[in-house]
Specification:
heterodimer, A: alpha/beta, Urease, subunit C, domain 1, TIM Barrel, 8-stranded mixed β-sheet, 7-stranded mixed β-sheet, 17 strands, globular, B: 9-stranded mixed β-sheet, 36 strands
Chain lengths: 446, 887
């Protein structure tokens, strides 16, 4: 009886929400704060503007090594050429960064920023596959600007981790006038939480790991059946259309591997149960997030299956360390053979702009430096399926570029300028209006 | 509750039984016969404790005492022979501190030296008798509560008239100490009372002596009869000892054993200065620490003192690890006398006493030490080692007959003999009826055993609390201490002096804990201890302008002084050293009133050395000014005005030469005197420009020095700040978004440090999380304090000022710049060595020194041992890091 009530309630809520979303998309501009100034002359590097050339002391392409004294040519928001001998068209606007280092914009797969008032946990039900973070995003959030000050350009904003399924996150850029500008992909990934945070202390089902796992598998089974039914119908194997169930609609993409599931999980027991449930049993596209505490003890199991580990915000462990020695978690996963290791901030737990500090700390505590830089750039892009667009400085990718005073993991090196799709979205001069803008003065800032 | 009822039920049955037996009445002759009976025990092994172990031993018992013990002694004719065969005989176990059979401990701090457990004792219940099944024959029952708890009573594990059961009715004075101001002051106050009484008595004696001499003088002139009468009168009036003071006097004079319960290891560190302050010869008659398992950490501290330690037979863990340690093994191996108590003070716990001790042996405690720890050492602590604790001629025949090795898990306790009577056989209920002269409950006819006399003379059967003679080892140690520590030379490091530039591959000479000289080609003094620092960077220890939860016992100062709650054994102290922090500012929010908060202190990280920790308290006056209500601000200003008046009056009085009474006004205003006199600054957290200006106004009005914390918008009013003696404590990384409702610059500015520098405003830098975290989030707390200075560099600040912000400027904010914060001759030798530049996020501290003593070495501590740069990398990276290959 209780189950049915619950189901009814959830369906009703879902229907209501879906209709709200539909209503929202019917009106022009999902974003209530749409920019008034929609038409302006495109600047160098932007879509429709003249080409932009960045001369740099060092270009960390991430995927293709380091280029000393190189040039990056940006056209229509995309990287057109990279190298030491690049022919630039006559109308190219150059930026002199010959004392500086250039790297791709950093990527964080576990972030909660840009959500006004930390609007990320609907606590009534333990599983909410029908919710999406998009409703809570505010493109004007000052937190996004803060992210730019640390050179972070792409983030996966996810709800949770108060419930087992808190909804679907969105992949966004950290600068844009409208929500449409921001969004790289929505849904970006489904957010699941296992262990600790989602425990239902109210005493209903989900107080224990047994209950939580039941809730998850029950829903995933439903979602799989639903997807299979629709797949069969769409392939023409079945004549009658299955019953439309809005609360399961977003799960279709999950089972069709259009987007991954990212799971909040930590500690060896929970990480292992995550691996079993999402990778082994449901064979979903899986990203294990946090993976902290003593989760590294099952790193070899993750490595064996080629799984994505998204480590953070903790980079070290002391609590579970038996010998009074700090354990460098990144180093442990890397040593165990985890190839896709990305690092997160869980912003605002660690400020979004400190993503590079997270990588620096992983290095301090034993992780290979190149692996750490990859962990905040290309590995995140690969894990979430956007490596064809961002994550490295390669021809054909979006021109998300950071100019820094020196080594990208060193707090002593400044973040001087940040470009997203070839557009200058942050420069040091913005924070200090009087000085320091000389390097990029050819580009007027907004 | 159920146990209680059971006990009283059993007591009733026992009483009833006793009454019945009394009715039947035993033939008196039988008792007499029993009394004269000689018992001989023959065993494969006799553990005498005091004279080693005897193979094929024989023990002859006469009149309840051990008459003879030796190898293969002839058995006297008519003696009852107990042939133990392959078994082992050990002395009856002595439990030195227990509350078994007494009411549950009450809490609270008391001043009750006169309380006697004797008055709580119900000697007819069979609780104690039942403990015989565990081999325990002697128990010391301790008082409950805290503070000066009272006097314990030592009893035999039997039932009977209280006076018969009691071995000593006032066996020791129990005290309890906690690392808090209130606990320490209770102890101090009580000991002071004792000391005062001793002095008063001494004075009286002197006066009498004088009178006597005067009388002697008079003798020549006066009649002899008269004199005698005077003398007699004196003798008739012995001074009445005050029961509330006498135990303290006895303890101070060493006539009553002193047992101090230490709530934690820090408490022990706080205890010794108090003892040394009040006891004339604090360790001559050895005090005993009743400790927690964590006490093993203080092994070096205890080695120096002549103390015995009571420890529960429990395993402990190395700080923050799962590495098991055996505290009794560690302490006894260091030559400290350890008395064990069972891990649980319950009937089951005590009945398993030997098994508990066996656990300790299993974990490395020497067999002999463990045997002593449950027999002779507790007896010595109680001053009863002439009666119990070993198998020796003349001692009470309290024996435990075991089926095998005392520390083997399968060994049975076959028989227990108490005062020459078999009172327990394996599988039976222990019964001490045989020891009762009369089975009806009654008061003993015997006079109670005499209390130790104030002059220290005691009965034959009792010895003084054993005083360990200071051995050659101790003397040698003292000699060594008297000798000056040899000079230390740090050679080969790149030295960042902070105040005098960089020295490549220089030398630092340290003498008596101070920096003697710094230079590039200094000769190393003869006999100096050389620290090879080639390839390393030397830098003054970092100064934390604030650090939460550092160097303080876990439960905080509890409203008292920070100085009384310092914990030199706290892991945070070790972690601070490992992070390069040698000096820190700590505070307590509790206490204080109005807008004035708690207390604050500057401490140094002299790990495991309480004496070196405190630099000053208070270190500032914390004022919660920003955001306070108008009325609260008004009240504060009133108070400050009063304080200014008070200071002026004091000055005037002083000028007039009246050294006597200070002016009436005082109280809270008097507490602000150091602030008014400029000895300490006020610390105010002020983030917005308005708050900062308001704080500046307050400082101007009362002429006080100021340290501003937070100060996000200080860059906006930097010029105003620069005109005054104000130091900031900032976190360059922390962001505050601009307030769009005000028509002026607002919010934080990444270039704040550079702008402040330009305006000439000094600032210290803190991490966003001002504590040393082990929670797993790295790079946000004080473990990596230098990276916050590095952040400032990334936003336009020069490296030199950034380094100053975590050394000399921070020291200035704390008022200790004359002692720490730079590598200069004359300053405290608080120096750290790093494997790279201090502002490099990859650098680790390899060595930390405070007052010229090395307190931390990375390769000797587990904390960061696996990390840091390998030697080849070190060589490549002495300068600012350059091209690190990235694929």
């Amino acid at each position: 009886m209780k189950t049915e009530h619950w189901r009814f309630g959830r369906s009703a809520l879902a229907l209501g929400l879906i209709s709200l979303i539909a209503l929202g998309s019917a009106t022009p501009g999902v974003n209530a704060f749409a920019d008034e100034e929609t038409k302006r002359t495109p600047l160098a590097g932007e879509q429709g503007g003249p080409p932009l050339g960045i001369r740099a002391l060092k270009i960390l392409t991430v995927t293709k090594g380091v280029i000393d004294n190189g040039l990056i040519l940006i056209r229509d928001g995309m990287i057109a050429a990279v190298g030491t001998h690049v022919a630039a068209p006559g109308d190219t606007v150059f930026i002199d960064a010959t004392d500086q280092w250039v790297l791709p914009g950093m990527i964080d797969l576990h972030s909660h920023i840009g959500t006004a008032g930390r609007d990320i946990n609907d606590m009534a039900l333990p599983t909410n596959p029908d919710l999406r973070i998009l409703e809570a995003l505010d493109p004007r959030s000052p937190e996004l600007k803060d992210a730019l000050t640390g050179g972070v350009t792409t983030i996966l904003v996810i709800p949770g981790s108060g419930t087992n399924i808190s909804g679907f996150g969105a992949l966004i850029k950290t600068a844009g006038d409208t929500l449409e500008d921001l969004v790289v992909r929505s849904p970006g990934a489904m957010k699941v939480a296992q262990g600790y945070n989602p425990e239902r202390l109210g005493g209903d089902l989900g107080l224990t790991r047994m209950g939580m796992s039941w809730g998850l598998t029950h829903l995933l089974d439903e979602g799989k059946d639903y997807t299979d039914a629709w797949d069969a119908y769409e392939a023409g194997n079945v004549e009658d259309a299955p019953e439309f169930r809005p609360e399961l609609e977003q799960l279709k993409g999950l089972f069709r591997k259009e987007y991954p599931v990212i799971i909040h999980t930590a500690g060896a027991r929970d990480v292992m149960s995550t691996i079993r449930m999402f990778n082994d049993r449901y064979k979903l596209w899986t990203i294990i997030s946090h993976a902290t505490f003593n989760g590294y003890r099952v790193a070899h199991e993750a490595a064996k299956r080629g799984m994505n580990i998204n480590l953070g915000p903790r980079q070290i462990d002391f609590r579970f360390a038996a010998k009074g020695t700090f354990i460098g978690l990144g180093a442990e996963y890397y040593k165990a053979g985890v190839e896709n290791l990305s690092i997160n901030t869980d912003a605002p737990v660690v400020p979004q702009e400190d993503l590079f500090v997270q990588a620096a700390m992983a290095v301090r505590y034993g992780l290979d430096e190149r692996a750490a830089i990859a962990a905040v750039t290309i590995r995140g892009a690969e894990a979430v399926g956007i490596a064809d667009r961002v994550g490295s400085i390669e021809v054909g990718k979006e021109a998300d570029i950071v100019i820094r005073g020196g080594h990208p993991l060193d707090p002593r090196s400044s973040v001087d300028a940040v470009f997203i799709k070839g557009r200058l979205v942050y420069r040091r001069a913005d924070w200090e209006p009087s000085e320091g803008a000389s390097l990029i003065e050819t580009i007027p800032t907004r | 509750m159920r146990t209680r009822r059971n006990i009283s039920l059993q007591l009733c049955i026992a009483l009833l039984g006793a009454a019945l037996i009394g009715l039947i009445s035993l033939p008196i002759q039988g008792v007499a016969e029993e009394k004269d009976k000689v018992i001989a025990i023959a065993a494969a092994r006799v553990e005498t404790i005091s004279q080693g172990s005897i193979r094929d031993g024989v023990i002859i018992i006469r009149n309840g005492k051990i008459a003879e013990v030796g190898r293969a002694l002839p058995i006297p004719e008519g003696a009852e022979l107990i042939d133990v065969g392959e078994g082992t005989v050990i002395p009856g176990l002595v439990l030195v501190a227990s509350r078994i059979g007494l009411s549950r401990s009450s809490r609270g701090t008391r001043k009750s030296p006169h309380h006697r457990v004797l008055d709580e004792l119900d000697a007819y219940r069979n609780t104690y008798e039942r403990l015989l099944a565990g081999g325990v024959t002697t128990l010391n029952l301790m008082p409950s509560g805290g503070g000066v708890m009272g006097q314990s009573v030592t009893i035999s594990a039997r039932r009977g008239p209280r006076q018969d059961v009691t071995l000593r009715e006032s066996s020791a004075l129990f005290m309890s100490i906690d690392a808090t101001t209130s606990s320490k002051s209770t102890l101090r106050g009580e000991l002071a009372r004792g000391k005062k009484a001793i002095e008063a008595r001494k004075k009286k004696k002197e006066a009498e002596e004088k009178k006597k001499q005067e009388a002697k003088k008079k003798e020549k002139t006066a009649a002899p009869k008269k004199k005698r009468r005077v003398a007699k009168k004196k003798e008739d009036e012995p001074p009445k000892p005050d029961p509330k003071v006498q135990p303290l006097v006895d303890v101070l004079e060493g006539n009553l054993p002193l047992i101090i319960r230490c709530q934690d290891t820090a408490a022990a560190a706080h205890l010794f200065p108090i003892l040394e302050e009040y006891r004339k010869d604090p360790y001559k008659t050895r005090p005993t620490l009743y400790a927690t398992p964590g006490m093993w950490q203080a092994v070096e501290l205890l080695e120096d003192k002549n103390v015995a330690v009571i420890l529960p037979a429990l395993i402990s863990y190395e700080r923050n690890t799962r590495n098991r340690v055996c505290p009794p093994a560690i302490l006894s191996a260091a030559g400290i006398d350890v008395a064990l108590i069972p891990g649980s003070d319950s009937e089951e716990g005590i009945q398993n006493f030997l098994l508990y001790a066996a656990q300790m042996v299993k974990h490395g405690m020497r067999r002999q030490d463990a045997l002593e720890a449950v027999t002779l050492t507790p007896a010595k602590i109680l001053g009863l080692d002439r009666r119990v604790g070993s198998i020796e001629q003349g001692k009470d025949a309290n024996l435990v007959i075991l089926s095998g090795d005392p520390f083997h898990g399968a060994t049975r306790i076959d028989q227990v003999i108490l005062q020459g009577k078999v009172v327990h056989r394996f599988g039976e209920r222990p019964d001490t009826t045989a020891l009762l002269e009369d089975k009806t409950p009654r008061l003993a006819k015997k006079t109670p055993p005499a209390k130790p006399k104030p002059d220290g003379k005691k009965g034959e059967s009792e010895s003084k609390p054993a005083g360990k003679d200071k051995g050659k080892k101790d003397l040698a140690k003292e000699e060594e201490k008297k000798k000056k520590d040899p000079p230390v030379a740090i050679v080969g490091a790149d030295i960042l002096t902070i105040t005098n530039g960089k020295i490549r591959r220089g030398t630092i000479i340290i003498e008596d804990g101070k920096i003697q000289s710094v230079g590039s080609d200094l000769p190393v003094p003869e006999g100096a201890k050389v620290i090879d620092a080639k390839g390393l960077v030397a830098c003054p220890g970092f100064v934390a302008a604030r650090c939460r939860g550092l160097g303080i016992r876990r439960r905080g100062p509890g409203g008292g002084k920070l100085a009384d709650a310092l914990d030199p054994y706290a892991f945070s102290v070790h972690l601070a050293l490992a992070s390069g922090i040698t000096t820190a500012f700590i505070t307590s929010r509790s206490g204080g009133s109005g807008l004035i908060q708690g207390t604050s202190a500057v401490i140094k990280m002299t790990e495991e050395d309480l004496g070196g920790m405190l630099v000053r308290e208070p270190a500032c006056v914390q004022i919660r000014y920003s955001g306070a209500s108008a009325s609260a601000k008004f009240a504060l200003k009133e108070l400050l005005r009063k304080a200014v008046d008070y200071a002026r009056k004091l000055k005037e009085e002083k000028a007039k030469g009246k050294a006597g009474k200070p002016p009436r006004q005082g109280g809270r205003a008097a507490a602000l005197l150091p602030l008014i006199r400029g000895e300490v600054p006020a610390r105010i957290a002020a983030s917005s420009a308005d708050d900062i200006l308001a704080a500046l106004e307050l400082a101007d009005e009362f002429g006080i020095r100021l340290v501003l914390e937070g100060a996000h918008e200080s860059w906006i009013v930097a010029e105003e700040i620069s005109k005054r003696d104000v130091c900031l404590v900032i976190t360059p990384r922390r962001k505050a978004h601009a307030d769009k409702t005000v028509d002026r610059p607002s919010g934080s500015n990444l270039r704040m440090p550079a702008l402040l520098r330009k305006a000439g405003v000094p600032f210290a830098i803190l991490s966003p999380n001002a504590s040393l975290s082990t929670g797993g989030i790295a790079g946000q707390d004080m473990v990596t304090l230098p990276i916050d200075a590095a952040f400032a560099v990334g936003r336009g600040l020069d490296e030199q000022t950034a380094l100053e912000s975590i050394t000399i400027t921070a020291a200035r904010a704390l008022g200790v710049a004359d002692r720490v914060g730079s590598i200069e001759p004359g300053k405290d030798a608080d120096i750290i060595l790093l494997d790279g530049h201090p502002l490099d996020y990859r650098s680790f501290v390899t060595l930390a020194m405070v007052n010229g003593k090395v307190y931390y070495e990375k390769n000797k501590s587990p904390v960061f041992a696996p990390f840091g740069r390998r030697p080849s990398e070190e060589a490549a990276e002495t300068e600012k890091e350059g091209a690190v290959p990235v694929r």
